[in-house]
Amino acid sequence: MERLLLITPCRDEAEHLDRTIAAVAAQTRPPDLWLVVDDGSSDATPLILARWAAELPFLEIVQAPQQRARGRDGLAVAAEAVAFNHALGLVPRESFSHIGKLDADIELPPDYFRRLLDRFAVEADLGIAGGLLLEDHGRGWRSTGGPEYHVRGALKLYSRDCLSAIGGIEQRLGWDTIDEVEARMRGYRTRTLSGLTARHLRPVATRNGIVRGRARHGQTAFILRYSPWWVALRSVRLACTPPYLIAGAAYFWGYLVAAVGDHGNRVEDPDFARFVAAELRGRARPRVVARVLSRRVRNPVEVSSNPPRS
Question: Per the structure, how many domains does the chain have?
Fold first, then answer.
């Protein structure tokens, strides 16, 4: 039987929380149980949650466990993953067919969960799925981009079998990519549905500043065992995005800092390392081929330099 558990880690989200909750309340297929985990909020978040919990029978408020010092950057210590796992441990997982994670700054379309669950129903090997994030950069809502195989940590939906097969989500930086690699290693598909969009009310990696966010992504690349050549290419690409040059430099710097002092968080499983390396090589080849073919099409002299013999 199809049953949906939704978990939302939440800390000081008063600015966006009403829109997030209202969007879930308006779902054509609402969650059967929604656990919102308040991780020590100091703003109006608890009041907002209490008001909505009185209106929505499927919404329950959970207090997150006390965590070690987290500083400014809760993502760096995987505070969301800790809160998610805490809530997941409070209910019998086998009672739900699908488990979702939704950040408290996401506004969903009314048919979001219905369409996702329908996709799981027709794709038996689908393990992790989600919608495409849109962000407002001052000129309207635009896609955040990203590869189809990656589902943003802000709005993931797991099949119960997949989540059990990968052993849940890990409580470390990079958890929302580690889970996908583990899923693909076990034969599950992971994908973002480009035709299903949601609005991200706070741009990706900007909660504590864009530069800090880029550095954190570089640190994540080391944890995931991305090779230096891949990180260098990614840094060049990011250097062409705002803040220009700085974004790429921050990403590469985060990787270097992690390489020097963050070995304790790196994934050490050799099978994981081999799988990641194979995936990166496979993704790089189509890009190289496409660029070569594109250059040849643009250069008619090169195309006709060796005409066929008559």
Answer: 2
Same domain, 33 and 78: yes
Tens of pLDDT along the chain (310 residues)?
A: 899 999 999 999 999 999 999 999 999 999 999 999 999 999 999 999 999 999 999 999 999 987 654 454 445 568 999 999 999 999 999 999 999 999 999 999 999 999 999 999 999 999 999 999 999 877 889 998 889 999 999 999 999 999 999 999 999 999 999 999 999 999 999 999 989 999 999 866 555 578 988 999 999 999 999 999 999 999 999 999 888 999 999 999 999 999 998 777 899 999 999 999 999 988 876 554 444 334 433 333 332 233 333 3
Distance CA 223, CA 71 (A): 20
pTM summary value: 0.86
The answer to whether residues 144 and 253 belong to one domain is: no
Q: Are residues 111 and 159 in the same domain?
A: yes
Same domain? 123 vs 227 = no
Report the C-alpha gap between 199 and 203 in whole angstroms: 10
* Exposure letters 61-78 (e unless 16+ CB within 10 A, then b): bbebeebeebeebbbbbb
> What's the domain range around 257?
210-294
Q: How far is CA 263 from CA 82, 92, 203, 256, 272, in A?
A: 20, 34, 29, 11, 15
